[in-house]
Amino acid sequence: MSKGTKVPGYMQGKGSRNPRGIIGDREIRYKCSLQNTILDVLRGRPGWQEVPGQNNIPQNVQANPKQQGQQSTGQQPSNTGKSGSGSTNQGTTFGNKGSVRNPQQGPGTQPGVPTRLGFQSIPPITRNSDGDWDFYWCDREWLAQNYDTMFLYEHQKILHFRNHYELTRKNLMVKNLKRLKKQTERELGKAEGQSFEFFPTTYELPSEYHIFVEEFKKNPGIIWIMKPAARAQGRGIFLFRRLKDITDWKKGEYQPLSDPNREVPETYVVQRYIENPYLIGGRKFDVRVYVLVVSYNPLKVWLYRSGFARFSNTRFSLDSIEDTYVHLTNVAIQKNAPDYDPDKGCKWSTQQLRKYLCAKHGVEAVKNAFKGIDNIIIKSLQSVQKIIINDKHCFEMYGYDVLFDSDLKPWLIEINASPSLTASGKEDYDLKFGLLNDVLNVLDLENRLTGKEKRIGGWDLLWEDGPILADDGNMECTPNGTTASIPNSFLGCHNDRKRQLRELFTAAQSIKKS
Amino acid sequence: MGDSNYSKAYIQTLIDELKTSKIYTDLQCAAQVEIAKPTLRLSELKKGVLNGLVNSGWDRKLRNAIYRFLQTHPKLQFPSPPPEHLKEPLVFLRKAQQAWEKRILKSLNSMCTDLNIPLARKRPEKEQKEWAQKWTELGIDGPDLSQFRPVYAPKDFLEVIIGLQNPNYHGSDTPGFYHLWGIVQVPLKVKDIDELRLQYSDMSINQCQSGIDDAQDIPSELFEQERVKLGKKVINTNHGPLAQEFSKKGCPTSMRATLWCQILAVELDEIDILYYEQLKTNVLQHDLLVDSLLYKDVKLTATNDDQYFVFEDFLYQVLLPFSRDTYVLNHFDYNSASPPKSYIRGRLGMDEFAVNYPPNGVIPFHGFAMYVAPMCFLYKETITLYYVFREMYVRYFFRLHSISSHPQGIVGLSLLFESLLQTHESDLFFHLKSVGCQPLKVAFKWLVRAFSGYLSSDQVLLLWDRVLAYNSLEILAVLAVAIFSFRKTNLMKVQSYNAAEAVLADLTTLQVIPLIQLSLFSK
């Protein structure tokens, strides 16, 4: 796989360090490139320390290595690129000088204390003084710039995988899904391929323009939706019914090729529009599902039981396809709607939604619908499993956008690698605060858990190299034998994360002692 | 039927009512179908027809119709009481209610003159068409409401209730001859905890309940599966009393919609659909002042609510036709309130030109829309929603905003709340009273709205399950007491009304059924 071709620094230092990568008894040092809920979470975590310095400015890889002795923080990743395994020693020396945090200072030390002048740094007790952070919630741009040249220690954890865009760019996502679908059909037959029928017919533009036109002519009258492949938050999306609409657009978009200043045309995807969405109170909505991937090889996936449904601001009807507000449920777009009320937020919790659907359709129907979401998650992740550059330092929290149609069948709309963490209200803040805290609990940098948990806070282990069942072992005890395989998936179920965590930590502690 | 319990006159009314209702002709038609069957022997004509009616389910329908009558018509103690006694036997409460109505009407009239808006007007042709078009999305651009204010809020109503005095107890000038601890000073008989325990014995702690034992972390084979199986059987029989008995332990979420319909005897046919369409036409043709009040209320309450904002349009589609529905007038036979009268222009005071205003006789107040909102979670079709709400209103909700001596009236519930709290949480009651925070001042708004909008929607539905199942609103007062007990530790620390209100501000996290069990059965 990709490992053969590329040997970044992190591949080389293996074995020389503590195999479990335990941080030991010092505080955990983190960096964070965002200013919202995640920062609150990290700051509120006992025993965690913010690495002082420029958190928000993406670091420059080309920083002069000579300065590193004096200029301490934030630059560590860059000095590792040039010297492979040798960097261990080198790094340590640099790091010792550079490391600001010293244990005696304790958590009282404020971030932002002068780092270079007059500060006699005492070597920390642990060996890992090389990396100046243990946990980095970075943005995608930073990772793209620095990943290939950085050196990571066993214990370090960083957000995002190197090529996360394989799943989050709309055109690549569809390409990957189509490929896995074909492969499945080839190996397991057409019937098995049916389980991939969760994304609408999609073509990439301009590359697949002609196939699209053919398909378009085959199905006259249906509505198509055009989305820029790389843009987020609903920007640049429009609907059309006639080919004329798109030829105009095509001219506008592609004509400037003659203009040397403009770059290659932006890639779009064109998608069959789902014309019968499930409506509540006459409004369309989509469901945000949070998924945490801690490893692609083996694939290990957690599903968060809370989330929310976003309602479109106006009533759904196909009469006015020019009205973007109706069709998109992105909060970002809705914010521009004329009568948007920010206090309202237009959101329901997933719990609320599940209750509503249960009341209307019965428990079984809803169970099936939510099982469909599990399928979407697993299939989409499997479609990129071999492509994503796996790295045990990396993790990813995806925000899946799922739409139900009027038959309660879920459709995958898109996957975000940096779902919005800014809260729109108190309830939203509580959700995101809990969510992110539980991400940290799953990653378990504090090493408080056994690693065998199936549920941590609001996260349920959905997949670990295979499906996870809700209760294993005592299947034969069930009286009617029908409950033999309940998947360990609880989207929209009661989330008593605090209580669960308390029990979990107590249990893990006693296991460890014995 | 236990004939001895019902007077002849009562049964006569029942028969008269049945004869005028649709079920009579339906039964006749069904009987004719039976007679026409070739298998029927002439010698056993009567028996054959009866059996046929039983087999085709008509007997159930008749039973349901009778049951419905029994539920909505109070049993008479005396052969022929005067009609005003049916409404309210106590003169001073009757008068108080009349005075209150006058006040409401006055404020409604002054709003009319201030804003220079007529009580009703016919819409021009063009506007009617517009309304017909936007019927399913009335919330998008409603009328300008900045001038409107709710006619009254629960707080104003509480003032009136506090002011109620029984003249028989205050004949002399000496104050405190008869003085209750709480703020309601009307001596009515209310139940004590033992009576309530008996009444709600199916809710006791050793009985499994929907709303506790069907929680998701409890394996469903312990309770839920059996419950759902039984529920299906109950629904299949389509028998009101059975559905009611079953609901005493709560309705499984997916069956609630059907069970409620059965308990309330809501069974839609073409006539009901037609009737609703007529009401809708009435809305389209005439613009009433109360429409703006209802609009305002929805905007103030449901639209601002995280759970209910989605249903804004449903609420208009229910509330506006409701205000036109003259069927609702029937409930004033047993409601202490009376429909307000309005006179055709220029004929003020002449009874022959008087009309009920609004046509259903109910003037909405702040929070009225919340009686409908939780039910939006149950019914997808507006028409079913409409009829279930209408039935709920004429059976229960009207009692929550009219002054009467009925044990389920708001005065009785307030008193029940106060007396339970005094008896079982005396220290808490005393503490709150002594820091100037009468508990009822906090709890009153919960009671008036039947907790809708205060609890999370699923909890409201679980609570209303029990209202329907036990055919009584008394559970509301019990829950209010339970909430006070549950937050007692914090309440004992407060030193002001505002602090107490803050402690009780957010009820959305509460689980009502365990709380009710706690306060009824744990001591």
From TrEMBL, chain A:
Bias (Polar residues) ranges: 52-63
PROSITE patterns, per the entry: TTL
Residue stretches of biased makeup (Low complexity): 64-96, 103-112
Single GO biological process annotation from the record: microtubule cytoskeleton organization
Cellular component annotations (GO), alphabetically ordered: ciliary basal body
Recorded coiled-coil stretches: 167-194
Domain of life: Eukaryota
Keywords attached to this entry: ATP-binding, Coiled coil, Ligase, Nucleotide-binding
InterPro entries assigned: TTL/TTLL_fam (IPR004344)
UniProt-annotated stretches for the region Disordered: 1-22, 49-121
GO molecular function: ATP binding; tubulin binding; tubulin-glutamic acid ligase activity
Signal peptide: none
PANTHER family, A to Z: TUBULIN POLYGLUTAMYLASE, TUBULIN POLYGLUTAMYLASE TTLL9-RELATED
Family per record: Belongs to the tubulin--tyrosine ligase family.
Protein known as: Tubulin--tyrosine ligase-like protein 9
Organism listed in the record: Magallana gigas (Pacific oyster)
UniProtKB/TrEMBL annotation, chain B:
Stretches that traverse the bilayer: 368-389, 467-486
Pfam families per UniProt: RabGAP-TBC
Entry keyword annotation includes Nucleotide-binding: no
InterPro entries the record matches: Rab-GAP-TBC_dom, Rab-GAP_TBC_sf, TBC1D19
UniProt cross-references to PROSITE patterns, sorted A to Z: TBC_RABGAP
Highest taxon of source: Eukaryota
This protein's UniProt keywords: Membrane, Transmembrane, Transmembrane helix
Domain Rab-GAP TBC: start-end pairs: 250-471
Protein name as it appears in the record: Rab-GAP TBC domain-containing protein
Species annotation: Magallana gigas (Pacific oyster)
